[in-house]
Structure formats: C-alpha cells, structure tokens
Design goal:
The chain is of the alpha+beta class and 737 residues long. The chain is built from 14 helices and 35 strands. Mean pLDDT is 91; it is low at 1-18.
C-alpha cells in the first residue's frame, strides 16, 4: 500500500510540475496566418477623418455650427476611466427650432432620434429641430440659469453671433458686427457674416483647428487656402496665420476682391509662417469699413505635408498607420446605416472640388463634411499600401453603384473614369472590396430585407466588376452557434441558408465574405469563437460545403486604457491561432484626438496638433507587426487553465521563434519553458508591456507612461524559466543557434 501511495504522489507531483511548463515544438508548424489580422477601422467617429486624416486644418469649415457653450462652464473631466478623455463640453451643441429658440443637446447620438431636420432631406429648413416633436431630453433655453439664458439669447440674436469654432478678432477702436445668416447660403444652413462698422483697427474671426487645440504651423512651409466669399462692394480682406498669442502675426496677405453681392466667389491664397508654433491660428480680417459673408474656409499644408499626388490626405497620419503595421483598413460605420441624412450620404456627393461639396447631418456630429469620403479613403489606402474595404448603404441604387465602380476603376475615356481624371486621379483606384451596410441583424424580418437588398446590389455590381469582393456586415455573437446539419427547424438559419445557396448559384463563393464584429472583452473561448463567425463557418461547410470567408473587421470596446491593450493582445492571440480560417481583421478605432471625443473613446493612436502617441493597444500592434512571423507553432501544455494566454510563432526560414504571452490576471505567473525541434541561442530578447493598473492611459501630459520595455533572458539547453507579471503582455524572441 505504501508503494502505491508513493507512486500516486509521484504522479501527482509530476502532473503538477508539467502543469507549470510551457512545451513548444519548434518543428511542428500548425498553419500560417495572414498579416491582415492587424487592421484599422475608420468612420466619422471621434474626428478620425474630418479633423484627422483629411488635410483640412480648420474645423468648422462651413460655419454650420451655431454658437459656443464655453460660457456655461461645463465639466472638463469625468471620473469614469473607461469613458474619459477630453472635455465633456466638446459634445454639447446649441440647436435652433423654427422660431429661432435655442436648445442645448449634450449627446450627438441623440440626433438619431430627437426630431432633427436633417440638412439634406431636403435642404429646405434653416432650423435643426421642430419644437412640436423634439426629444424632451433636449434642454430648452428657459431650463438654464438666468445668466446663462441671457448670455445664450444674446449670442443667438445679438451682434456677436459667431460660429462655434471661430473666435472674434477686435483691435483698436474698431467695431464689428457678426451674424449667422440662414438665407441664400453658400452650401448648407448657415454662413458667417462679418461687418466692420466704424473705428480704427481690425475686425475679424480666427480658427484654431480641431476643437481649438491649435494648428501646427511650421516655419518656412507653405499653407494653401480657399475662401468662398460674398461681398456687396469692392473691399480688401486680409488672411493671416497667427501665433498662440493671437496678437502675433506669423504671415499675412491682403486680397482685393471685386463686388459679388449675389454669389460666392472663390479666393485661393498661400501663406508662409515666419516661425513655428504648435498652437497657431488662421484668421480672416477686415481693416476698414466693409462687409463680407463667408460660406467656406479651407487651409491645408502644401505638397510637403500631403501624400504623393498632392491629394488632401495628411502624410503624418499615413506614416503613423504604416508605423503601426496595418495591412488592411475599413471605411464604414454608423454614417452608412444610421445617419439621419442618409439621402446625402451618397458617393456622388463625395466627388468634385472639396469646396463645392454639401455638408450633411452625420451620425456622430450634426455638422459633417463630405470633404473626406470614399475616394479620399481610397487615397489613404493607396498612400499607405493597404487593402481598403469601402462601405456603402444597402439602400443605394444599383445603377449608381455601377457608376461608382466606373468612376473608381474605369478608363479615362469612359464617362465616369474621365470625371475621376478631372478630379485629379487619372489612375484607377484599387477598389477590390465593397461592404454593404453596417452591423445588420442576423435574424428575423430585418435580415430578410437586408439579404434581398444585398442580392439586388450584388447582381449589378458583379455585372460591372465580376472580380469585386462583396461583404456582408452582420454581427453574429452566439447566433447559429449550436445548429447542426439538417436542422431545418430554425427559420432564421433557413433564411440565411437560402441566401448562401443564392451566392453559390451565382458562382461567387470566392467573391463573398462576412464581416462579423466582436467585443473587446475577456470572454470565454466559445463566445469569441462564435462571434468571430467560426461556428457559422463550420456549419456552412458541413451543411452546404460552402467555404465562408471571414473578415471580422471591428473589434469594439468602450475605452482605450491599459485594460483594452491586454484584451487586444489576447484577441490577437486568438486571431493568430485561428488565422488560417480568417482572411483579415481590424480594430475600432484607429485615431482619436486628445482634446475631446464624441463617444466610444477607443482610439489606438491619440494625437494633438503636432504629434501622435500610442495607447496600449497601439503598442500591442507594433509588438506583433515589427517582425511579422507567419507560422503558428504547437504549444503542448498551458495548464492549469488560468490567466496566461500563450501564442508561439516562427519565421518562414525557421530561424526565429517568438512567444506572445498575455497575463490578464493581477498575479504573476512563473513558467518553465521547454523547446524541442529548435536549437536556441543562449540569449533571448524580451519585450514587455506592463504591468500597469488597468485604468492607466497614455495622456498628452505623459504619452509614454505605457511603453514597451526591452531586455534579455538567458536560455540554457533550450530551457528557461520566466515570471510573467500580472497585467502584462510579453514577447520573448529566440534566434536559432
């Protein structure tokens, strides 16, 4: 009996010992994984486009925004680290009803439901809300304090009506009057009228860029600009670049303009600042009695700051995309399927001169611009050498989309190809992926309607371009997770099954794919497996012998802190382990300004006027992509099931092995690592992110708080022991001896 007990104890200790060992077989390659699992996602959320990628350095270009709310002294911080960045007042707007009465709305998302008169359906109303049907969560002016009521009423009706992101310039004894006019406007609801009435000095307005965080002016570099101006008499206007102190002029140019009382003339100009200033401003000034009405203002860096071809895309944003190792990028989102101005969100409104494009009421901002649209996005993909996925509305006219394809890819001798050349891009765009709508429902009548609209569009698109890859955007979650072949009792699956059979009948299995978005959270393996779409992939293979291509192109979360970085690293491990079954993947959202946000502050790269810095998830991307290893290796033992998630990859030539280990628990975990089939050099390189509190973030004041730290580790006989800190992501790179 004693011998039996000793044997049992011996087996127990051996078992416990093996449970603390990570076994890597360097000779057992499981599969390759595409480098497109590291992708970016962009939409009109949190200023990724207008205010970000778009070369326009001014914000409030159309003077659509009403007056500012800074006088209300709203809170500038929140206490919830999962939603905090920037001042809350950046999401508070003043809107007017048909009687000119002001209201306060604190949520751009409420524009979906608060009874807004969208700009383009049709362009007939100069007011934003109807007093009879507005959402009662909006605050009318009489709900404010008496002093705030007085201030707001004066700002709306008095002589200082200045569009939200512009500020008054007034020097000497000069007296100016400012009005926001709503009749005979240039290209939207409002224009900015400015009058020099009397006195000596200057009257004008200045703009400090996105959310007034400053314009990065660089000494000796040229800046190109456009104004659209209406004026009753001949007058001199001055355009200027100002320093962080608006009294300092870094550049100024006088422009004499002829009378244009009934139409807006275009004025082009160039300015070169005498010194650099990261908090610069742009100004339009009158120095003698006169009157002008501004309908549009534009300022961009010269060719030096834009991508090759001179397109209106900022080179610094493209460089950052490249630095993070992106290989696929998606342009789709709520502006596609939830925009209340959906009649204006159409591709034909996104072409031609930028200063002639109509603004629209967007999903996340009521004052969106078509200056950055589908084809500017394709310019981004082209400049960064990325595969671009373009989203269109399921309500598009198929004939219009056929014309869009001709515009993007047609010969310059074709009708729409010649218009592309006219717009400055004679070479065809690389348009290989079109995604129809965004985040649709997988079941029920809504899915049925979606499938029918998809088929109508697909039929015409594949006629125009048989090689076009079409993508559904349907979130799956746990839907269809437990169905088996032959189970005909689920009407939602039968509906989907019929749709997939239609794809097969068209012979388009290779030109069809599925974008299922997934949650950035520490969820069970089965939930992640299902939400990526792989349970559905299994089912369709078994049931219909259909090879479903998966592109989960939006990893969604509510925050950008270190916790998000750990979640992102773990999800990247999953994507790599299952990567031979996934065509590409991406994370929402790529860019976000430090100055403020609309909603879902989950940016991977933050920026201000003159710099970029990674949040933890951005550093995770770089740890994977700095040296992309295509092969996934077998990891034999990771037990006991705890907070360690281990991925191991190798190079094509078998000379490099890297471990990617996420410890999402708060306690350190020590493991022996035993490698077979690979003779390692005696020293490994370790790159470590963390440990940090889950709430930690890289702020503008401390952009490098969370940064990878590199060191070395001794390896003896293909074995080593390492303690993985709690709340950390570690890469261990080994080279063949």
């Amino acid at each position: 009996m004693k011998a039996i007990i000793l044997i049992i104890l011996s087996l127990f200790f051996i078992s416990c010992s093996s449970k603390k060992t990570i076994l890597i077989d360097g000779s057992k390659k499981l599969h390759t994984v595409t480098d497109r699992v590291n992708g970016a996602n962009m939409e009109d959320l949190n200023f990724q486009c207008y205010g970000g990628m778009y070369s326009q350095l001014l914000y409030g270009q159309d003077f659509e925004e009403h007056v500012d709310v800074d006088f209300m002294n709203l809170a500038t911080e929140t206490t919830d680290y999962k939603s905090m960045t920037g001042p809350l007042r950046t999401i508070t707007f003043v809107v007017l009803d048909e009687n000119g009465k002001p209201y306060i709305t604190t949520q751009p998302l409420s524009y979906r439901s608060m009874g807004v008169n969208p700009l383009g359906n049709p362009v007939t109303q100069s007011y934003e809300i109807n007093s009879i049907r507005y959402d009662r969560s909006i605050l009318p002016v009489d709900s404010l304090s008496s002093s705030d009521q007085e201030t707001l009423t004066y700002m709306v009706t008095g002589d200082k009506q200045i569009s939200r992101y512009w500020r008054e310039i007034n020097t000497g004894t000069a007296r100016g009057i400012y009005k926001l006019v709503t009749k005979d406007t240039y290209n939207g609801r409002r224009d900015q009228k400015m009058q020099f009435i009397s006195g000596v000095g200057e009257v004008g307005i200045e703009n400090s860029g996105l959310l007034r965080m400053g314009i990065n002016l660089q000494e000796g570099k040229n800046y190109e600009g456009i104004l659209r101006v209406k004026n009753p008499r001949t007058c001199d206007i001055y355009v200027a670049l100002l320093g962080s102190d608006p009294k300092e002029k870094l550049a100024e140019k006088v422009i004499r303009i002829n009378p244009s009382p009934n139409s807006f003339q275009r004025i082009d100009f160039e300015l070169i600042p005498s010194r650099s200033d990261t908090k610069g401003r742009f100004a339009v000034i009158l120095k003698e009695p006169g009157e002008i009405t501004l309908g549009y203002a534009f300022l961009q860096p010269g060719l030096w700051g834009r991508v090759a071809g001179g397109y209106p895309i900022r080179q610094d944003f493209v460089d950052q995309l490249k630095s993070n190792g992106m290989n696929i990028i998606r342009y789709n989102g709520s502006m596609n399927n939830l925009c209340i101005d959906n009649e204006l969100y159409r591709w034909k409104n996104m072409i031609g001169p930028n200063d002639e494009r109509t603004p629209y009421t967007g999903t996340f901002t009521p004052y969106a611009t078509h200056g950055f649209g589908i084809f500017e996005f394709l310019m981004v993909a082209e400049a960064a050498n990325l595969e671009g996925v373009v989203g269109i509305s399921m309500d598009e006219d198929p004939a219009e989309i056929k014309e869009m394809i001709e515009y993007a890819k047609g010969s310059v001798t074709s009708k729409w190809g010649s218009m592309r050349a006219r717009d400055g891009h004679p070479e065809p765009y690389k348009l290989n992926y079109i995604e129809i709508s965004n985040e649709q429902i997988a079941i029920g009548d809504r899915a049925k309607v979606y499938f029918e609209k998809f088929k109508t569009l697909a039929t015409e698109i594949w006629k125009a371009d048989p090689e076009m890859n079409l993508m559904v955007s349907i979130n799956i979650g746990n839907t269809f997770a437990n169905l088996k072949k032959g189970d005909q009792n689920n009407p939602s699956y039968n509906q989907l099954r019929d749709f997939i059979l239609w794809i097969k009948e068209q012979g388009k299995e290779e030109n069809f794919s599925w974008d299922s978005h997934y949650s950035a959270s520490f969820r069970p393996d089965t939930i992640i497996y299902n939400s990526f779409g792989m349970a559905l992939q299994d089912l369709l293979k078994e049931d219909l012998d259909f090879n479903l291509k998966l592109y989960p192109l939006e990893e969604n979360g509510q925050f950008h802190t270190f916790e998000r970085g750990l979640i992102h690293a773990r999800l990247q491990n999953y994507l790599n382990r299952w990567g031979n079954r996934i065509e590409g993947a991406a994370t929402a959202n790529m860019f976000q300004p430090e100055a403020g946000y609309m909603t879902w502050p989950q940016g991977r790269v933050f920026y201000d006027s003159h710099r970029f810095w990674n949040q933890a998830s951005g550093h995770v991307d770089q740890m994977f992509t700095k040296e992309w290893l295509p092969w996934v290796l077998d990891v034999g033992v990771q037990a006991p099931a705890d907070s360690l998630d281990v991925l191991v990859k190798s190079s094509d030539d078998d000379n490099v092995i890297s471990m990617y280990v996420v410890n999402f628990g708060n306690q350190p975990k020590t493991r022996d690592v035993n490698i077979t089939g690979f003779k390692s050099a005696k020293e490994a390189t370790i790159t470590k992110l963390g440990p940090h509190p889950l709430s930690a973030r890289n702020s503008g004041e401390n952009p490098d708080l969370i940064s990878p730290v590199t060191g070395t580790l001794k390896v003896s006989g293909n074995k080593f022991t390492y303690e993985f800190p709690g709340h950390s992501f570690t890469q261990i790179r080994l080279e063949r001896k």
